[in-house]
Protein backbone atom coordinates (compact mmCIF):
# COMPACT_ATOMS: atom_id res chain seq x y z
CA UNK A 1 0.00 0.00 0.00
CA UNK A 2 2.85 2.45 0.63
CA UNK A 3 4.64 1.47 -2.59
CA UNK A 4 4.06 1.98 -6.30
CA UNK A 5 5.03 0.26 -9.54
CA UNK A 6 5.72 2.09 -12.79
CA UNK A 7 4.15 -0.72 -14.81
CA UNK A 8 3.02 -4.24 -13.82
CA UNK A 9 5.99 -6.52 -13.32
CA UNK A 10 8.39 -3.65 -12.58
CA UNK A 11 10.05 -3.31 -9.18
CA UNK A 12 8.14 -1.51 -6.44
CA UNK A 13 9.32 1.82 -5.05
CA UNK A 14 8.34 3.57 -1.79
CA UNK A 15 5.66 6.24 -2.25
CA UNK A 16 7.98 8.94 -0.90
CA UNK A 17 10.11 8.44 -4.04
CA UNK A 18 7.22 9.80 -6.13
CA UNK A 19 7.73 13.49 -6.95
CA UNK A 20 11.22 13.48 -5.39
CA UNK A 21 12.89 15.12 -8.41
CA UNK A 22 14.48 11.87 -9.58
CA UNK A 23 12.67 9.80 -12.22
CA UNK A 24 12.49 6.17 -11.12
CA UNK A 25 10.20 5.01 -13.94
CA UNK A 26 11.68 4.61 -17.43
CA UNK A 27 9.29 7.24 -18.79
CA UNK A 28 9.57 9.48 -15.70
CA UNK A 29 5.88 8.97 -14.87
CA UNK A 30 6.59 9.10 -11.14
CA UNK A 31 7.57 12.77 -11.54
CA UNK A 32 4.49 13.84 -13.55
CA UNK A 33 1.72 16.02 -12.10
CA UNK A 34 3.55 16.60 -8.86
CA UNK A 35 2.11 20.07 -8.43
CA UNK A 36 5.31 21.58 -7.05
CA UNK A 37 7.73 23.96 -8.66
CA UNK A 38 11.35 22.94 -9.10
CA UNK A 39 13.53 24.29 -6.31
CA UNK A 40 16.07 26.95 -7.22
CA UNK A 41 19.58 25.68 -7.90
CA UNK A 42 21.77 26.23 -4.83
CA UNK A 43 25.19 27.71 -5.36
CA UNK A 44 28.09 25.22 -5.06
CA UNK A 45 29.58 27.07 -2.08
CA UNK A 46 26.31 27.12 -0.16
CA UNK A 47 26.79 25.37 3.22
CA UNK A 48 23.20 24.11 3.10
CA UNK A 49 23.96 21.98 0.05
CA UNK A 50 23.77 18.30 0.90
CA UNK A 51 24.47 15.33 -1.33
CA UNK A 52 21.29 14.26 -3.09
CA UNK A 53 19.89 10.86 -2.20
CA UNK A 54 19.08 8.80 -5.25
CA UNK A 55 15.68 7.19 -4.97
CA UNK A 56 16.80 4.53 -7.42
CA UNK A 57 18.94 2.92 -4.73
CA UNK A 58 17.70 2.51 -1.14
CA UNK A 59 19.90 4.18 1.50
CA UNK A 60 22.54 1.85 2.94
CA UNK A 61 21.07 2.08 6.44
CA UNK A 62 17.76 0.69 5.22
CA UNK A 63 18.80 -2.71 3.89
CA UNK A 64 16.13 -4.39 6.02
CA UNK A 65 13.49 -1.93 4.81
CA UNK A 66 14.56 -2.56 1.23
CA UNK A 67 13.92 -6.28 1.50
CA UNK A 68 10.66 -5.56 3.33
CA UNK A 69 9.22 -3.40 0.55
CA UNK A 70 10.37 -5.83 -2.14
CA UNK A 71 8.72 -8.74 -0.34
CA UNK A 72 5.57 -6.68 0.34
CA UNK A 73 5.33 -5.81 -3.33
CA UNK A 74 5.93 -9.42 -4.36
CA UNK A 75 3.26 -10.57 -1.92
CA UNK A 76 0.71 -8.08 -3.27
CA UNK A 77 1.53 -9.20 -6.83
CA UNK A 78 1.02 -12.83 -5.80
CA UNK A 79 -2.33 -12.01 -4.18
CA UNK A 80 -3.43 -10.20 -7.35
CA UNK A 81 -2.41 -13.20 -9.46
CA UNK A 82 -4.39 -15.59 -7.22
CA UNK A 83 -7.46 -13.35 -7.44
CA UNK A 84 -7.23 -13.26 -11.24
CA UNK A 85 -6.86 -17.05 -11.47
CA UNK A 86 -9.86 -17.63 -9.18
CA UNK A 87 -12.01 -15.13 -11.09
CA UNK A 88 -11.07 -16.73 -14.42
CA UNK A 89 -11.82 -20.20 -13.08
CA UNK A 90 -15.25 -19.13 -11.85
CA UNK A 91 -16.02 -17.52 -15.22
CA UNK A 92 -14.99 -20.65 -17.15
CA UNK A 93 -16.96 -22.88 -14.77
CA UNK A 94 -20.08 -20.70 -15.17
CA UNK A 95 -19.82 -20.77 -18.95
CA UNK A 96 -19.37 -24.54 -19.05
CA UNK A 97 -22.32 -25.03 -16.68
CA UNK A 98 -24.51 -22.78 -18.85
CA UNK A 99 -23.44 -24.69 -21.97
CA UNK A 100 -24.29 -28.04 -20.34
CA UNK A 101 -27.71 -26.69 -19.37
CA UNK A 102 -28.24 -25.47 -22.93
CA UNK A 103 -27.14 -28.83 -24.39
CA UNK A 104 -29.51 -30.71 -22.05
CA UNK A 105 -32.53 -28.59 -22.99
CA UNK A 106 -31.70 -28.93 -26.71
CA UNK A 107 -31.50 -32.71 -26.35
CA UNK A 108 -34.79 -32.76 -24.46
CA UNK A 109 -36.49 -30.65 -27.12
CA UNK A 110 -35.16 -32.87 -29.94
CA UNK A 111 -36.39 -36.00 -28.12
CA UNK A 112 -39.86 -34.50 -27.65
CA UNK A 113 -40.00 -33.55 -31.33
CA UNK A 114 -39.19 -37.13 -32.36
CA UNK A 115 -41.65 -38.72 -29.90
CA UNK A 116 -44.52 -36.30 -30.47
CA UNK A 117 -44.21 -34.65 -33.89
CA UNK A 118 -46.21 -31.46 -34.22
CA UNK A 119 -46.64 -30.96 -30.47
CA UNK A 120 -43.30 -29.35 -29.70
CA UNK A 121 -43.30 -26.13 -27.74
UniProtKB/TrEMBL annotation:
<keyword id="KW-1015">Disulfide bond</keyword>
<dbReference type="InterPro" id="IPR002172">
    <property type="entry name" value="LDrepeatLR_classA_rpt"/>
</dbReference>
<keyword id="KW-0472">Membrane</keyword>
<feature type="region of interest" description="Disordered">
    <location>
        <begin position="26"/>
        <end position="64"/>
    </location>
</feature>
<keyword id="KW-0812">Transmembrane</keyword>
<protein>
    <submittedName>
        <fullName>RSVR protein</fullName>
    </submittedName>
</protein>
<dbReference type="InterPro" id="IPR036055">
    <property type="entry name" value="LDL_receptor-like_sf"/>
</dbReference>
<feature type="region of interest" description="Disordered">
    <location>
        <begin position="99"/>
        <end position="121"/>
    </location>
</feature>
<dbReference type="Pfam" id="PF00057">
    <property type="entry name" value="Ldl_recept_a"/>
</dbReference>
<keyword id="KW-1133">Transmembrane helix</keyword>
<feature type="disulfide bond">
    <location>
        <begin position="19"/>
        <end position="34"/>
    </location>
</feature>
<feature type="transmembrane region" description="Helical">
    <location>
        <begin position="69"/>
        <end position="95"/>
    </location>
</feature>
